[in-house]
């Protein structure tokens, strides 16, 4: 899958140049011209990394980064014309994963993105997960029950893999949002909807199949 980037940058010429180059390099790019639009893009989820300018017309990029870091570990590369050491230190202390001072080459930006994405990958997990009759091939991102392949959307697959990696463990809605959407400020109804759809797909298979159990007041677990 193409990594999805949020480019939060108010200079149109620079942003269009970056977006064009990044898309040719194999990324999907959502461009936001100010802090408000950037926050909205991050709230929608599905973003793998944010490229954030500090000098935004409706607020400081540092404040947006600070708000993001209060709820999420989404990788962030700060890009700015501010080359002062104090600005670089402030961005890194708040939680930026990397820092680029304009002007810089697009090739360097792509290399930095790849490096940050590699560092942000979770520890290796088994290639195959088993939970009762459920088999998940994490390399192929496929799930099957007794050989019957499940047709899952990306977030449905991610949710099932998360639960299957720790059968019997209860995950709160906030943990699910943080792990799968990269932000706990999403509405809990998002998790409810995905659990509902996933249960429906499992229910279509002949028993026995694993069950996603709601633990009232706590969250969800997978019972093999």
TrEMBL record:
OmpR/PhoB-type domain residues: 126-224
SMART domains xrefs: REC, Trans_reg_C
Protein name: Response regulator transcription factor
Residues modified to 4-aspartylphosphate: 53
Lineage: Bacteria, Bacillati, Actinomycetota, Actinomycetes, Kitasatosporales
Record keyword RNA-binding present: no
InterPro entries from the UniProt entry: CheY-like_superfamily, OmpR/PhoB-type_DNA-bd, Sig_transdc_resp-reg_receiver, WalR-like, WH-like_DNA-bd_sf
Response regulatory domain segment(s): 4-117
Keywords assigned by UniProt, alphabetized: DNA-binding, Phosphoprotein, Transcription, Transcription regulation, Two-component regulatory system
DNA-binding region residue numbers: 126-224
UniProt xrefs under Gene3D superfamilies: 3.40.50.2300, 6.10.250.690, Winged helix-like DNA-binding domain superfamily/Winged helix DNA-binding domain
